[in-house]
Amino acid sequence: MARDDQLSQATALVARLDGLRRAGHSCAPIAEHVNRAGVSPPKRTERFTGETVARWLSRRGLHGPRPRAMDDASVLRPHEYWLAD
């Protein structure tokens, strides 16, 4: 099968994955959802996995929410910052 960006429905699928992620679902449940819907992943794999979903979103700059630990102000000392900041 083709690369993920060559799939005819890639744009619609990414929008669907991103919508589920924005609704608060993590990557593994999103993968289960698209597998149940019968979506075929690229690259000769049988099923979507959480890693596949994360990779699709990441390649398009669509990252999920920050990990909870990053929101805890007590983790960093004064003048320390997360690399993502």
Structural class: mainly alpha
Radius of gyration: 16 Å
What share of residues is helical? 40-55%
Output the number of helix runs.
4
- Determine the strand fraction and express it as a percent band: under 5%
Low-confidence stretches: 1-6
Series of secondary-structure elements, N-terminal to C-terminal = HHHH
Give the integer mean of the pLDDT values: 81
Number of strands: 0
Note the main sheet: none
Distance between the termini: 38 Å
Folded structure, characterized:
- Helix content is 44%, strand content 0%.
- The chain has 85 residues and is mainly alpha-helical.
- The model is unreliable at 1-6 (pLDDT under 50).
Protein traits:
single chain, 85 residues, mainly alpha, 4 helices, elongated, disordered N terminus
Strand-helix topology:
Layout: H1 10-22, H2 27-36, H3 50-59, H4 68-71
Helix pairs in contact: 2-3
Can I get a quick summary?
With 85 residues, the protein is mostly helical.
